[in-house]
Design brief:
Blueprint (H helix, E strand, L loop, with lengths): L1 E10 L4 E9 L2 E6 L9 E4 L4 E4 L1 E3 L17 H10 L2 E8 L7 H12 L6 E7 L5 H13 L3 E5 L10 H13 L3 E5 L5 H11 L8 H4 L2 H18 L2 E4 L5 H8 L8 E6 H5 L24 H13 L4 E3 L31 H11 L5 H15 L17 E11 L18 E11 L2 E5 L2 E2 L16
Helix pairs in contact: 4-7, 7-8
The structure holds manganese (II) ion (MN) (2 copies).
Amino acid sequence: MSLFIRGGEVVSGQGRSVADVLCVDGRIRRVGPALEAPADATIIEAAGKLVFPGFIDPHVHAYLPLVNVTAHSDFANCTRAALLGGTTCIMDFAGAGREKDFDEAWGVWTAQAAGRASCDYAFHLMVREWNAGLRAQLERLVARGLKSLKIYLAYKPSLAIRDEDMFRLMEFAAANDLVVMAHCENAELIPVLQQRLLAEGKTGPEWHEPSRPPMVEAEGVCRFLTFAAAARAKAYVVHLSCAEALSMADRFRDKLEHLYVETMIQYLTLDKSYAERPDFEGAKWILSPPLRAKSDQEALWQALADGRIDTLGTDHCPFGFAEQKTLGRGDFTKIPNGLAGVEERMMLAYSAGVNGGRITAERLVQVAAENPAKIFGLWGRKGAVAAGFDADVVVWDPAARRTISQRTQSLDVDYNPYEGFEVVGAPDVVTVRGEVMVRDGEFVGPTGRGQLLLQGGGS
Ligand code: MN
Ligand code: MN
């Protein structure tokens, strides 16, 4: 089975050139000008289009059962939305808090994905505590190729890891070449601020941001990176939202050999005024860390452009408004935290970032394909349009105009956080391992052929 993508402008992190792309048996065989198409090849004409590597979202919750509520998502609808948006690989988090150990968490998440996912996927492993039994389980997962761990500094008592456990885990990570990812917010300060606001009668969604202001996130970044430096671990700050936390991360650049920072499309394109909308509508935009000030957006774009931010994800985690967000009516602390975004990420980033003159298309490829692949051990297989890589390709129409809307989104959720946003530039054809999954912007692929990627190449 071969696929031939003719005459598009192939974009990598280093540059671009007009070339044909020949894919055979699910892999890219050759990239170059004026290649010959095999007689049996499926031909895709890409003149006037950009040809991107399939984008990778390093931070997605396709399946997330929380204590009182489960995200309105599964691997089928999440990966379908991802593909429609040009994302061909998602990285989810195995473990949400109720599983008794790593083996159980790994089993639950791999079972959820198998047969449902339409694009390839990898897992980071959630860690809440550290002991000898968990260490033995983790050693087995590492031997199979696991490369990344996720901890929460926030959310006591269910998820947050103790400082001592965090340090021991980081020592293990350093010895085993694992990346430690952290949700950085101070777990003790948030409930104190929440209770103070509620006691003052401040119960609406607009009080979510003041209950976890930038300093709460900056403190988390400081503590996480202090521990990582002491343990000499690879550190990855997830979903950084604001200038204050970014400045804190900058202070550690000469103290850590491997420091990675991730931001999310919502922090670049939305601000806290959305969560201040009246009549509880603001609940649609509640997530943590919260949406910030307009001025934070510009700081994040600048850092994305100059290299201080390495990756761009979504933290995709949709909740319905009427059924789920309203659990927090009268008490903002009970609003389920999360937004959809896996379908919209690249269209928003291309429009606001590339068309907006803030980053180049090459930089977009770095932060949304190359860097996630390199940091998490998928490079060589994912992240580039180059010989030997999986044939995960996005033919991108830079002139396509779309208006984002709940009415046209693929997810069965009752709102879209980007309702009414006009974008220019959208995926036309999307392939996974040489199979066309999206054509003319429509999902045409089979459900369930996504594969589990073990980041270190294990089995
Ligand atoms: Mn988080
Ligand atoms: Mn998350």
